[in-house]
């Protein structure tokens, strides 16, 4: 829709001007730092930072219903900068001018209701939000769109040249980082560090295809993370891990979109999310808190975080119900099919602790739960979801398994409605499905394939066919007819098809 066709109330606000006073705040010692330079940890105490808008009260001169109308109207606009996560510009990174925003098609991912089969099985209504339909096929694009837009702004306003972006990854962060960096190929080169043999071939192909330098590091993700942190502390690089607080800002868009897709009515809604490095759950809680503070929503949804028993430090931390007795202990991870969440020492843990506190204070009843599921449940749930029309990755399967667990434990009731984060596209993790079907998953996964969930292709070799067509070698007409008829007969036999009655 053309800007001139919007109402007088909305038109002046359609295209936001840079605003706000953003700073980095240390979660440990509360020290604040300027955003003029890229900073990843507190210069005083080394703890993680979050971005805060010191002028956020200015947004309250408008009512919650004004913001709802503005955000809904913006969906009709055709301005590229506002097509993705920056539709919520005022809430994400209002200091970035629209001209610097990088939009590669991220955000506004589909929210797909589960069919009756699945809903009856789980015992409540639920949806998958398909974040695998982002440009690099995972939710990581949300944070990367923000981090790289900010970098783009710095490049232009400070005249930076030859920036090197770098990250460690369980696969999807590097795919997103390499993609967005490639878009800025004039000024940004990217390098990614991946744990050797711990990312899928599809995930490996992504940064390679985007032209990034790819380094494989022996060990698991947690080891990679230490190396990249050392690089960021000692060399001049732009770190794109979720230590980079701009990524958290961008990932908050998930919450804004969930709210928007339910017309901002979040009573009895439950948001289910897998936890790895814990950036996503941090952003999701932060996003809903912002909406509540502005009156855009009136109720906070319940949050259910899910972890595999093979990588469950956050679950273990919250298993202790008395807050004063909780102690965080990193765990040594074991192989997990939810490989993108296979993290024993989540970087964002201090953020989670802080935000869970804030969330619990603002929610009228307990608002955040962490449940634990088995590898078997994750894999079975992924396959079952996808056999019912979804495109969930293993972490999406983990969400479904987590919803079942939450239901079992009475954390979620039949009257509630859940939104499950299908964090990546199923195709990125096709190898786990393949190994499940072939029953050759390493014993360490502790998964026994269920016969009814396995599936194989069948090569059709009809008995009466002697010669086969091949590329560039078509069969003569009568032999080709025999091939078609006999092959079709064989398939009909396999499928138990009945022949049509003769037409009169
Ligand atoms: C990164 C990732 C996760 C884990 O998210 P965190 O923010 O690290 O907790 C889950 N699923 C997928 C597909 C991911 O790429
Ligand atoms: Zn500090």
Structure, explained:
With 504 residues, the protein is of the alpha/beta class. The chain has three domains: 111-136 and 256-453, Rossmann fold, CATH 3.40.50.1100; 139-251, 3-Layer(aba) Sandwich (Rossmann fold), CATH 3.40.50; 458-499, no CATH class. It is built from 16 helices and 13 strands. The protein has a six-stranded mixed β-sheet, sandwiched between helices. A four-stranded parallel β-sheet has the order 8-7-6-9. Strand 10, helix 10 and strand 11 (302-308) form a beta-alpha-beta unit. Helix 9 (253-261) packs across helix 10. The longest helix has 19 residues, at 140-158. Pyridoxal-5'-phosphate binds next to helix 10.
- Biggest beta sheet attributes: 6 strands, mixed
Structural class: alpha/beta
Overall average pLDDT? 96
Q: What's the SSE pattern?
A: EEEHHEHEHEHEHEHEHHEHEHHEHHEHH
CATH architectural name of the largest domain: 3-Layer(aba) Sandwich
CATH class of the largest domain: Alpha Beta
Count of all domains: 3
Q: What is the number of helical segments per DSSP (H or I, 4+ residues)?
A: 16
Strand content: 5-15%
**What does the radius of gyration come to?**
25 Å
Identify the overall geometry.
globular
Percent of residues in helices: 25-40%
Structure summary, number of beta strands: 13
Q: What is the terminal-to-terminal distance?
A: 55 Å
Poorly predicted regions are none
Arrangement of strands in the largest sheet: 4-5-13-10-11-12
CATH topology name of the largest domain: Rossmann fold
Q: What bound compounds does this protein have?
A: pyridoxal-5'-phosphate, zinc ion
